[in-house]
C-alpha cells in the first residue's frame, strides 16, 4: 500500500484530497491510501469570518472526505522531512509518505507591538471570530470606555471588509452612536488594488462615515484603545488587527526557496522546487497563475491549486502525466457592509459591479461557490476532476 498524505484541512487541503481521490477513482487504483491531517474536524470557511452570522462557517471534513474514501487524522504536523519522506506529528509520532501535499495555509502575523496579543481581536481563525463576536455581544451590557468605537488596523481586503461590516454589527447590538476608524500604515488603502477599485472603496468608506488614518501605524494597544505613531490616542473598546498574512511556519522546516511571506516556490505542477515527492497548494505556495502573475493568498487560488496538487500527487504515484496549474481569470469581490460590495475583473481590477449588484455576487461566492459538495460520492467526484468547475450549483 502506498500513502499520499495531505497536511491541512482548509480549502487547498480538502480540494487536494478530493482531487487525488478523483484520480484514484478514474484509474480504479486501490493500492494507494489518502490521509488528510488537520487539527480541526471542520473546514472553516475563512472568507466568511468577518460576517456577523457564524452559524454556517464550519463544514465537517468527514462529510466531504468519507464518501470518497479519504482517512482523516486529527493532529498537528510539527515538521516535514522531505529527504526521508517523513512527517513528525504532535507527540513526536512519525509517519512516512510516498507523496505529500502541503496545504497548511497561512496565519495572521502579529508583530511585537505592546498589548497587541492581549487586547486586539482578529477574524483570521474561527476561534478568533467567535471571540470577537462574544465581545461585541457583551458590549451593550458593560459601560466600557469607547464601547461604540472600533479601530481596525490594516487597510487591505480583510480590514476593509470587517470595518464596513461593523456598521451593521454595532447597530444590531444597539450601539448607534458608532465610530469606526481604519488605520493603514501605507499611504493608500490596498497598495496593489489600482485606482478603479480603490476609488470605489474610498467612496463607500466615506458614505459609511468610516474614518481613515493613512501612513499611520499603531504604537500600542490597551484594554481601552490604541495609541498611534502620530501621538493620537483613540479610546476604543474594540481593536481588530487585520494587517499582514504569513505562510504557515511549517515551511521553515523545509530546505527550499521561500518568498518574503514564507511561501514555498513551486513549479508549474505545484511541486516544491528541489523536492520531487512534495507538492504545495494554497496560501503556503508561491505559484505562477500565468506568464506574469503569481497566485495571491486567496480561496480563489487555493481551490484550483488544491485540485491540481492532489491530482498530480496521485498521478505521480500512478506514473500518469501531471497537469500544469494555470489560472488566467482573476476577479475580486469585496464586501462593503451596508453600502453593498464591489466586483472587479482582471489584474488591473476593472470595476464591473458595485453596491447591491456586487453584493449579490459576493453572497453567492461566500455562501455557495466556495463550499465543497458534501455527502454524495458522485457529486464530490464530479467537481474534483482537474478540468471541472469547482462551483456548486452554478
Ligand atoms: C476574513 C477573511 C476574508 C477572506 N476573504 C477572501 C475572499 O473574499 N476571497 C478569497 O479568495 N480569499 C479570501 N480570504 C483568504 C482565504 O480564506 C485563504 O486564502 C484560504 O483560506 C487559503 O486556503 P488554504 O487551504 O491554503 O489555507 P487555510 O484556509 O489557512 O487552511 C489551512 C489548514 O491547515 C491546517 N493546519 C495549519 N497548520 C497545520 C499543521 N501544522 N498540521 C496540520 N494542519 C495544519 C489549518 O488548521 C487549516 O485547516 C479571506 C481570509 C480571511 C481571514
Beta-strand segment tally: 24
From the alpha-carbon coordinates, what is the Rg to the nearest angstrom? 21 Å
What is the helical fraction, as a range of percent?
25-40%
Query: How widely separated are the two ends?
Result: 38 Å
Q: Mean pLDDT, rounded to whole units?
A: 96
| CATH homologous superfamily caption of the largest domain | FAD/NAD(P)-binding domain
| Percent range for β-strand residues | 15-25%
The unique ligands bound to this protein are:
flavin-adenine dinucleotide
Widest sheet: strand ordering: 5-2-1-9-20
**Poorly predicted ranges (pLDDT <50, ≥5 residues)?**
none
- For this structure, the CATH topology of the largest domain is FAD/NAD(P)-binding domain
Total domains: 2
What is the second-level CATH architecture of the largest domain?
Answer: 3-Layer(bba) Sandwich
Number of separate helices:
9
- Text of the CATH class of the largest domain: Alpha Beta
How does the major sheet shape up?
5 strands, parallel
Secondary-structure class: alpha/beta
Shape field: globular
Q: Quick summary of this structure?
A:
With 394 residues, this protein is an alpha/beta fold.
Model description:
- With 394 residues, this protein is an alpha/beta fold.
- It folds into 2 domains: 203 residues, 3-Layer(bba) Sandwich (FAD/NAD(P)-binding domain), CATH 3.50.50.60; 126 residues, 3-Layer(bba) Sandwich (FAD/NAD(P)-binding domain).
- The chain contains 9 helices and 24 strands.
- Strand 1, helix 1 and strand 2 form a beta-alpha-beta unit.
- The protein is globular.
- The model has no long low-confidence stretch (mean pLDDT 96).
- It binds flavin-adenine dinucleotide.
- Flavin-adenine dinucleotide binds next to helix 1, strand 2 and helix 7.
- The site of flavin-adenine dinucleotide has 33 residues, from helix 1, strand 2 and helix 7.
- It comes from Polycladomyces abyssicola.
- Belongs to the NADH dehydrogenase family.
- Pfam families: Pyr_redox_2.
- GO terms for molecular function: NAD(P)H dehydrogenase (quinone) activity.
